[in-house]
Write a structure and sequence with these properties.
By secondary structure, this protein is mainly alpha-helical. It folds into 3 domains: 3-62, no CATH class; 70-114; 126-223, DNA Binding (I), subunit A (Orthogonal Bundle), CATH 1.10.30. The protein is built from 8 helices and 4 strands. The strands form 2 sheets. A two-stranded antiparallel ribbon has the order 1-2. It has a two-stranded antiparallel sheet with strand order 3-4. The protein is elongated. The N and C termini lie far apart (65 Å). The structure holds zinc ion (2 copies).
């Protein structure tokens, strides 16, 4: 059995697992030009690292406690506000925001491509539309539970067309208007075109005399619809 000097303390040890870690031992046995730290030195190094880490996390805790004091918080806020007024900082922040949005938008578009959502002239992606309408509902204190996949299922059910006239899908429409307590939920949201959306206004489903009976029936159906969500593998 051979022996080798530790690369750190220089002590010569037998090549056994008593003195070397298994991985180091393998390296030393397979290549006589390799040098490694002995087990003792490895342990010492690990300990010193741990200590450093503990000190670091102590500092972190202290720092976050300090920053959470109300007077310090107010000071930091005032400082940041003043700082953000500087033209060069303003420009840099605007640039950061632009970059962030560009990346985010690309992610959202990718989701649309993966889910085969047809491209259309629009300002917002479907996920943005869901988020915006959930926000709107939450602000109005009505249900806001629509998920991206639920909205996708609704769009597919209406073949990406206006639920009222079969024309081009342009906006998310609340069957029971938000103002009447209708939420942004899977059973209350349908795709619509601008003109049907404007025509329907704040009317409730039983006030839709303007629309064909068929359309009104579809709306009632949708309000009590349980959406067949797709599984991960694309099956129903
Ligand atoms: Zn050593
Ligand atoms: Zn329409």
């Amino acid at each position: 059995m051979g022996e080798r000097a530790c690369s750190t303390c220089g002590q010569v040890w037998l090549l056994t697992s008593e003195h070397w870690r298994t991985r180091d031992l393998k390296a030393l046995l397979s290549d006589e030009n390799k040098s490694r730290q002995c087990k003792n030195c490895r342990a010492k190094r690990a300990q010193s690292r741990r200590k450093k880490y503990e000190q670091l996390s102590k500092v972190k805790t202290y720092r976050s406690e300090y920053r959470n004091r109300p007077e310090v918080k107010a000071h930091i806020k005032a400082y940041n506000q003043k700082r953000n007024q500087k033209p060069e900082i303003k420009a840099r922040n605007a640039e950061k925001k632009r970059n962030y949005l560009a990346i985010k938008r690309e992610e959202l578009r990718q989701w649309e491509i993966e889910n085969e959502i047809p491209l259309r002239e629009k300002k917002m992606t479907e996920q943005e539309i869901v988020a915006t309408n959930n926000y709107r509902a939450a602000t109005a204190n009505v249900e806001a539970t629509l998920t991206d996949n639920e909205w996708l299922a609704v769009l597919k059910a209406f073949d990406f067309s206006c639920a009222y006239c079969g024309g081009e899908y342009q906006v998310l429409e609340h069957i029971i208007p938000v103002s009447a307590g209708g939420g942004t939920t899977v059973d209350n949201c349908v795709p619509a075109c601008y003109s049907c959306n404007a025509r329907k206004r704040d009317m409730l489903p039983d006030e839709l005399d303007d629309f064909q009976a068929e359309v009104i029936a579809t709306m009632w159906q949708h309000l009590f619809w349980v959406v067949p969500l797709e599984n991960e593998d694309g099956t129903n």
